[in-house]
Design a protein that fits this description.
CATH superfamily of the largest domain in chain A: P-loop containing nucleotide triphosphate hydrolases
CATH topology of the largest domain in chain A: Rossmann fold
Helix content of chain A: 25-40%
Helix content of chain B: 55-70%
Strand order of the largest sheet of chain B: 1-2
Radius of gyration of chain B: 25 Å
Largest sheet of chain B: 2 strands, antiparallel
Shape of chain A: globular
CATH architecture of the largest domain in chain A: 3-Layer(aba) Sandwich
Structural class of chain B: mainly alpha
Number of helices of chain A: 11
Strand content of chain B: under 5%
Order of helices and strands of chain B: HEEHHHHHHHHHHHHHHH
Shape of chain B: globular
Structural class of chain A: alpha/beta
Strand order of the largest sheet of chain A: 6-7-8-3-9-10
Strand content of chain A: 15-25%
Low-confidence stretches of chain B: 68-77
Mean pLDDT of chain B: 86
Largest interface: A-B, 51 and 37 residues
Oligomer: heterodimer
Chain lengths: 265, 413
């Protein structure tokens, strides 16, 4: 596999008052890789995500995203620019869909930047420009392809909040993919799913990586998912990185075993 | 339910009523002697009535109870019913002045209703679509009305010159309000907007040199027809509308003309609102209402989304203000109190958040209800309150709860 670094996290720290949630963590996520971040509860995984996607401003450290000869320093960008310009989108631990809008609308909203440009900042759309109508049709077509992929095309016009939980999780991932990201951050996608659904979700993540060449950063507690699909696993404990490597090695790492199972006295 | 709990509930209701009635009904002030009379027998009657009423109500079988219909998400595929109803309402509105039962008072009332409908549609953008509670919407209404009134007074600008300008000024004031409240949501936003509404009214009330203070601004020019005034007499060198068409002057003409101007504006604003919902910015407003954090994670800029909602909503409020000033020929700060903001918000909530037709219905009801209640003077607010409670029980999410999707995959789009 070509090992081209997409995201470099350098010495990331996040302090909340006296609490150090993330303490000098460095790692690299490679293009087209699935990189998993695991660790016991409270290890700082979601905090790393929140720093990456602009919800927290890191206390110190650098988050560099490099692709196509351009580099973005994520810690300096406004939250929405991280998604729009740098191409880093995320899903949430507790699903955050636009519940009152339809499934299709959720996916069309995600293509906001493209549609805004096509509508000449809405003015062209207001007077009914053909180019905007064509762009809207293209956006719907793209949404349809994604919905076919997750088997929700026939429920496209229903309110997203009425979908069963598993479908909402898949829809949230697909919505993030509709922004054409370079890096997709998925926060506990298998939480609340049964083993069969988890396995299906794992296959789905691999398939979108393979088809769209997106890099995936994954937080997950379900080890069958993590060990099955990750190219690269990073283990956090108490805000510090304790292991980093391919799943086979991480599984045998004594520090990891100690963090998860405790130490024999 | 057995008899013992029924009696217990009835007794509880009676106690609550007596406790409330004791200070409110139990004493009556008078102009002589010790200052007040007591009328405790009335309190006893109220308590007895509550006891008997509650007991009787308990005998009504459960299946006759009003059931709340409160589905959380209703994005039903809608039939043709709403477009047909909307078209019927539009046709009726166009024909209204020529219908046999039409009168000057009725057309004038219809103009007031139209102004409220426009205000409802304007506020709906911020409250119904973007989900930002605004309790000071009358401020933008006032900005529009006063922009026109003052520009006419000081610079002699006409209705048609000021209509777009007043909208622009109101939009700028919307951005002015929007900037400091970008980070606020829910109750906190509501409080700041409430304060903004009061600030505007108090400034208008106290800046007497410019605004005329509580006396307001008089002699606001009426809209002209292609530059021709609709009036009995015109200054030298100006042809009036009546002279041009060779018709005798009738005050009704002016009322009907303003009605049609408002109707045209309302139809245009309706078209605009329906259209903008299907544009990226309209969908972004609704997405912002549903989940601001998810918006940000998808690369939508919450700042521009909020400011655009505030600006466009304020602009529509400003237009309504110009119509208001042109209709009355007079503005004063008294017309833009919190009561006004609350009425407009009631129109949006009763209409069903985000529903254009629902707002038409609610706007007509709220604009005409006080007129019908005029004979009942002191019971007007009671009637109003009872109507609101009834609507909230029957239709807690407004008259029209169906949200039409902005795009569809299956079926018509």
């Amino acid at each position: 596999m070509s090992q081209q670094a997409l995201l470099s996290v350098e010495n990331l720290s996040m302090r909340f008052g006296g609490v150090v949630a993330v303490d000098g963590v460095s790692f690299v996520a490679y293009a087209r890789d699935i990189t998993a971040i695991i660790g016991p509860n409270g290890a700082g995984k979601t905090t790393v995500f929140n720093c990456l996607t602009g919800f927290y401003r890191p206390s110190s450290g650098r988050l560099v995203l490099a692709q196509d000869g351009k580099t973005f320093q994520l810690e300096r960008l406004q939250g929405f620019r991280i998604a729009r310009d740098a191409g880093v989108t995320r899903t949430f631990q507790n699903v955050r869909l636009f519940a009152g809008m339809t499934v299709l609308e959720n996916l069309v909203v995600a293509q906001h930047a493209t549609l805004t440009r096509a509508s000449f900042y809405n003015l062209g759309g207001l007077i009914g420009l053909k180019s905007y109508r064509a762009a809207e049709r293209a956006a719907i077509e793209k949404a349809r392809e994604w919905l076919d992929l997750i088997g929700l095309a026939d429920r496209a016009d229903e309110a997203a909040g009425n979908l069963p939980y598993g479908a909402q999780r898949r829809l949230e991932i697909v919505r993030a993919m509709c922004t054409d990201p370079r890096l997709l951050c998925v926060d506990e996608p298998a939480a609340g799913l049964n083993p069969h659904e988890s396995a299906e979700l794992a296959r789905f993540l691999v398939s979108i990586r393979d088809r769209f060449g997106v890099a995936i950063l994954l937080i997950e507690h379900d080890m069958s998912v993590v060990m099955g699909i990750s190219d690269h696993v990073i283990v956090l404990n108490y805000g510090q990185k304790i292991a980093d490597g391919p799943p086979r090695e991480v599984r045998r790492d004594p520090a990891v075993i100690k963090a998860y199972l405790g130490e024999e006295e | 339910m057995g008899w013992a709990p029924r009696f217990r509930e009835a007794a509880l209701a009676a106690i609550v009523v007596i406790a409330l009635a004791f200070p409110l009904i139990g004493f009556e002030t008078n102009d002589f002697g010790h200052g007040f009379d007591t009328r405790f027998s009335w309190v006893a009657i109220a308590g007895g009535a509550a006891f008997a009423g509650k007991l009787l109500l308990g005998l009504v079988p459960r299946r006759f109870y009003l059931r709340q219909r409160a589905a959380r998400h209703t994005a039903l595929p809608e039939g043709k019913a709403i477009p047909i109803a909307a078209a019927a309402v539009a046709v009726f509105a166009v024909l209204l002045p020529v219908l046999p039962f039409s009168s000057r008072a009725l057309v004038d009332l219809a103009t007031v209703s139209l102004i409220y409908i426009i205000l409802g549609w304007g506020l709906n953008i911020v409250v119904g679509l973007a989900g930002l509670l605004n309790l000071g919407y009358a401020a933008f209404y006032a900005v529009g009305a006063y922009s026109f009134a003052l520009a006419a007074q000081w610079y002699g600008l006409s209705f048609w010159e000021m209509l777009p300008l007043a909208g622009l000024i109101a939009a700028l004031s919307g951005i002015l309000l929007g900037l400091p409240v970008l980070r606020l949501r829910g109750d906190y936003l509501a409080i700041v907007t409430l304060g903004f509404g009061e600030i505007v009214r108090i400034v208008l009330n106290n800046w007497s040199q410019v605004t005329g203070g509580p006396n307001g601004v008089n002699d606001i020019p009426r809209p002209t027809f292609l530059g021709m005034p609709i009036a009995a007499r015109a200054p030298d060198g100006v042809t009036t509308f009546n002279q041009f068409f060779g018709m005798p002057y009738d005050p009704m003409q002016r009322v009907v003309y303003l009605y049609y101007v408002c109707l045209a504006a309302a139809l245009l604003i309706n078209w605009f609102s329906l259209r903008i919902r299907r544009l990226p910015v309209g969908r972004a407003w609704e997405a912002l209402r549903e989940d601001e954090i998810a918006c940000r994670a998808l690369g939508l800029n919450p700042t521009t989304i909020k400011l655009s909602a505030f600006a466009i909503s304020a602009m529509i409020g400003g237009f309504a203000g110009v119509f208001f000033a042109a209709r009355a020929g007079f503005v004063s700060p008294e017309s833009f109190t919190f009561q006004e903001s609350a009425t407009i918000l009631a129109i949006v909530v009763l209409g069903g958040m985000g529903s254009q037709l629902g707002i038409v219905l609610a706007g007509v009801v709220l604009a005409t209800l006080p007129e019908f209640g005029r004979e009942l003077a002191q019971f007007r607010m009671l009637l109003f309150g009872a109507a609101m409670v009834a609507i909230m029980i029957w239709r807690p999410r407004g008259f029209f709860t169906v949200r039409a999707p902005s795009v569809r995959l299956n079926g018509k789009s």
